[in-house]
Amino acid sequence: MSRFDQIRITIRKDETLWKGWSHFRRIVFDYIRPDDSKVQLEWEVFDRGEAVAILLYDPKRRVVVMVRQFRIPVHLMGDHAFLLEVPAGSMEHGEDPAETVCREAMEETGYEVAAPRHLFSAYTSPGAVTEKVHFYFARIEAAHKTADGGGLAEEHEDIEITELSLDDAMAMIADGRICDAKTIMLLQWAALNPDALSP
Question: Is pLDDT above 90 for 62?
Answer without folding.
Answer: yes
